[in-house]
Amino acid sequence: PSPVSPGLMWLQQGEGGGSLRHTCEQGDGLSRYGWLMHDGENFGVQEIRDGGLFLKTEFVKRPGGEHGGDWSWRVTARMEGTGGPAPLLSLFFYVATDGQGTLEPHLENKSRLAAVTGTSEELGDFTLTFLRPTAENGEDPKYASYNYLDAASPGLHRLTEVVRSSLSNRFVFAPPGKPRRRFFAVDTFRGLPGAVGEPPRGRLLLHQVTLEPSGTVEVTFESGSVADRPGRLAGGALSAALAQHMAAFEQRFEETFGLGRKGFPASQRRFAQAALSDMLGGMGYFHGRSLVQSPLQEHPVPAPEAALFTAVPSRSFFPRGFLWDEGFHQLLLARWDPALSCEVIAHWLDLMNAEGWIPREQILGEEARAKVPPEFLLQHSETANPPTLLLALQRLLPDAPLPYLRRLFPRLRAWYDWYNRTQAGPLPLTFRWRGRDPHPERFLNPKTLASGLDDYPRASHPSPDERHLDLRCWMALASRVLGEVAERLGEPSGPYREMEQALSDNRLLEQLHWAQELGAFADYGNHSSAVALRWQRVVPAAPGRPPPDPQLVREVREAPRPRFVGALGYVSLFPLLLQLLRPDSPRLPTVLATMRNERQLWTPFGLRSLARDSPLYMQRNTQHDPPYWRGPIWVNINYLALRALHGYAGADGPQREQAAELYRELRHNLVANLYRQYTESGFLWEQYNDSTGRGQGCHPFAGWSALVVLVMAEDY
Predict the structure, then answer these.
(1) How many C-beta atoms lie closer than 10 Å to residue 403's C-beta?
(2) What pLDDT shows up at residue 302?
(3) Which residues 6+ apart lie within 8 Å of 313 measured at CB?
(4) Which of 25, 411, 485, 605 fits as disulfide partner to 673, beta carbons 3.0 to 4.6 Å?
(5) Which of 33-47, 321-335, 435-449 shows the lowest per-residue confidence on average (mean pLDDT)?
(6) Where are the domains of the chain?
C-alpha cells in the first residue's frame, strides 16, 4: 500500500530544456515503446524510441533471503540516424518513499549519488547502488556529469512536477578535449505551487546522469536478508542472467503457444511475444478507495480501502483495472501462468461489497485518480459489467486447486445472486442493464456503459421494459460456470444447471429476442429509429448578453414504441459468441450469413461492431462523443467470434463446413491486420478502422488486443 518506489525519467537536452519523460503519456508522441520480453516474474526487456533516441531497459530479479531477493536494472541509450553531435541525454534514476520507510543517501564528491541504503516494511533493509556509466560494450568508462536531488515528496503522482520544477540550466558539461555545453539539471526544489503547508508524503532521492549517447548505466538493488550472495548482479553476471532468462522465455513461449510448430515466421513470433510481454509488464498493484454513489445515500461516499493486483488495458490511457477487460486479459495470462491468473481473479472478487457488487472501474489511489476526468470518478452501485472473469475461471477450472475454489465459491455465488437480483428484466428469464444515461435528449442514443459496449445502439428511450440480449447470454454463461464450480466442489449445482438450461433454451431465446422483421437476434425496448442530432440555438441568459454557442440536441421525428431494436452488430451475435445456439439451430445459417456479409459485419480486417447498413453506423453520439462501438473492429469480440466458430466447426451440424470456412478467413484477416499495423506503427491499438484496418483509439493497448496471441495459437 505504501511502497518504496524506484523509477526512471529521461530528458533529451535542448533549447528550453526539452521534454522530460516519465509516465506513459499518449501526448509524448513516442514512435514505439513496450516490453519485448517479460515473464511476469523474473526478468523483462523493453525498447523505447523517442525521436532519434533508442533506449533499452532490462531487469533481472534473483530470489533469495526473506524479502524477495535482489534485482538489477540496465539502461542502454544510443542515438540513431542523426547527423552531427548527439544531443546530451540525462537519465534520472530515483527512489521515493510514500508513507513509510526510510532512505539514506551516500554521496561521492558532493554531487554523485553513489548509493541509497534504506528500510521498509515489506523490503526490510536494502541497498540501491548506482554504478558509473560505461560505453555500450559495458566495459569502457564513459564521461558523465552528475547531479543529485534530495526533496520532500508530495506523493508519487507529483514526482514529475517536482523534478521539472527543480531543473536549472546553470550547469556545464565539460568532457576533456571537447566543446563545453550547458545543460539542465536538478538543482534546488522549492516546493510546488499550491502545496505550501501540506505535510510531505515521503522522501525523494534522485541521481541524474548526463552523458553523450551511446552509453549504459546499471542499478543494483540488494536485499539485506540475502545471505551467501554469489556476487553482485551487474556487468557480465547481469548479461549472463539476462541471456539465460531470454532463452528460457523463448522455450516456454513455444511450449505454451506452439507458434513455431504452426509455421509462423520469427518476426510474427516476436510480435506475439511482445503482445504477451506488454500485458505482463503493464500489471500493477493498486491501493485506495473507490468513490461510490448508492441509491441508499444522498451523496457519494468513499468505499472501504481496497487492494488490487491486476493487468490494465493501456499503460498510457487506462492504467487501472476494468472489470470486463480483466476477464479477457486473464484468458491469455491463465495460459501463461495459471497461478498468477488465480491471484488476480481472487483480488477482483475481494473487491465485492456486502451486496455482491464489484465496481466496474477501479480508480484506487492518487496516481490512478490523476489519470481520470472528474466526471468518471464516481462508481454507481447499481451498475454492472459483463462477468467475463468467469470465462477465465472456466479455463482455469480443470486444474484449479480445490481449496482455492472453495474460498472463491461464496463470492461467486454472491456475485451471481447480485446480477439476478439487480439486473432482472421485465419478464421471467430476461435481463436489463441498469444505469443507462439518464438524459436521453443529450445523446443520439443514450449510452449503456454497464454493458462494456458503451455507445452501441440500444432502445432510443431507456425504460424498465428493455430486454438486453447480451446480458441474458452472459447470465447463461455465468449459470454454466457456477454449475461447473459447484460440481467440482461437490456442492449442489441444481439451481445453476436449471438456470443454464432455461437460458440456453433456443425456443425461448427466439421468442424473447428473435426479430423476424430484422432477420436477427436483437434487444427489445421503447424505440424510435427516426432520431437525429441537430443544432439548437440557445437563448441568451439575459437581454444584451452574447448568445451562448449553439448545442447539438436530439430530435425525435417519430414517436417511440415497444419493439425490437434495429441495430445489427456485436449484440446481435451474442447467442453465437457465447455458443448458446445449438449447432442445428435454424437461425445459425442467418447469423453466419450476417457475419460474412460485407454490407453488414464482414471486413478484410475483422468483424466490425455495427453493420454498415445500420442507421447509427459511424454516427456521433454527441458533439464531443465520436462513434466508439458503432463500426470499428474490436479484438475481444472477434476473439469470441473465432472461439465460437471453432466450436461450431468441430460440432456435428449442417453449418459445420460454413463455420470452418468463416473461421479460417476471419482468423487470417485479424492476425494479418494486427501484425501489419504493429509493424507499421509500433503498437497494438484499442480498436481498428473498419475501412482501412488502421489502428485507432488509444495506444499501446496490450489489453484484450493481445488476445491475438491465443488466436495465432488457436487456443480457445
Answers:
(1) 8
(2) 92
(3) 322, 325, 686, 701, 703, 704
(4) 605
(5) 435-449
(6) 26-87+213-264, 90-123+143-211
* Whole-angstrom distance, CA of residue 12 vs CA of residue 79: 11
Query: Does position 551 have pLDDT exceeding 90, yes or no?
Result: no
pLDDT at 359 > cutoff 90: yes
690 has a pLDDT exceeding 70? yes
Residue 537 pLDDT level (bands cut at 50, 70, 90): confident
In the numeric block, which cell numbers belong to residue 13?
A: 537536452
Which of 2 and 273 is assigned the larger pLDDT? 273
Cis peptide before 585 (omega within 30 of 0): no
Amino acid at 100: Q
Q: Is 409 exposed, middle or buried (0-12, 13-18, 19+ CB in 10 A)?
A: middle
The residue among 350, 346, 338, 480 whose CA lies nearest residue 398 is 338
Q: Mean per-residue pLDDT for 140-145? A: 94
Measured distance CA(563)–CA(324) in Å, rounded: 29
Could you tell me which residues are beta bridge partners of residue 205?
Answer: 95, 150
Q: State the chain's maximal CA–CA distance in angstroms.
A: 86
Per DSSP, the three-state class of 2 is: coil
Residue 556 phi, psi dihedral angles, 5° rounding: -105, 115
Residue 16 scores a pLDDT above 80: no
Relative to beta strand 301-302, strand 291-293 is: antiparallel
Residues 184/90, Cβ–Cβ less than 8 Å? yes
Query: Phi and psi of 286, rounded to 5°?
Result: -120, 150
Q: pLDDT at residue 486 above 70? A: yes
SS3 assignment, position 408: helix
Phi, psi for 667 (deg, rounded to 5): -60, -45
Give the integer Cα–Cα distance in Å for 197 and 308: 32
569 DSSP assignment: B
Q: What angle do CA 704, 709, 715 make, to 5 degrees?
A: 105
Q: Confidence band (pLDDT; 50, 70, 90) for 85? A: confident
Per the rule left: phi > 0, alpha: psi between -120 and 50, beta: everything else, 530 is: beta
DSSP string, 413-450: HHHHHHHHHHSB-SSTT-B------S-GGGSSS---GG
pTM over 0.85: yes
Q: Give the Cβ contact number of residue 602 at 10 Å.
A: 22
CA angle 202, 152, 77 (to 5 degrees): 90
Average pLDDT for residues 650-659, to the nearest whole number? 97
Q: At what angle do helices 338-349 and 323-336 cross, to 10 degrees?
A: 160
Q: Which residues are CB-contacts of 510 (< 8 A; sequence separation ≥ 6)?
A: 587
* Cell representation of residue 327: 476477464
Tell me the per-residue pLDDT of 94-125, one tens digit each, with 9 for 90 and over.
Answer: 999 999 999 999 999 988 999 999 999 999 99
User: Within a 10 A sphere around the Cβ of 265, how many other Cβ atoms?
Assistant: 10
Render the burial of 470-506: b for 16+ CB within 10 Å, e for the rest: bbbbbbbbbbbbbbbbbebeeeebeebbebbeebbeb
Is residue 43's pLDDT more than 90? yes
Element containing residue 710 per DSSP (H, E):
helix 708-713
- The residues that bridge with 48 in the sheet, in sequence order, are 33, 55
**For the range 591-598, what are the long-range contacts, defined as Cβ-Cβ under 8 Å and sequence gap of 24 or more?**
591/520, 591/521, 592/655, 592/658, 592/659, 592/662, 594/519, 594/520, 594/568, 595/641, 595/662, 595/666, 596/662
3-state secondary structure 349-360: HCCCCCCCCCCC
Q: Which three cell numbers stand for residue 681?
A: 506503427
Q: How far apart are CA 429 and CA 424, in angstroms?
A: 8
Q: Residue 302 forms beta bridges with which residues? A: 291
Distance CA(636)–CA(641), nearest Å, equals 9
DSSP character for 555?
E
Give the helix/strand (H/E) hosting 481.
helix 469-489
Residues with a known catalytic role: 454, 686
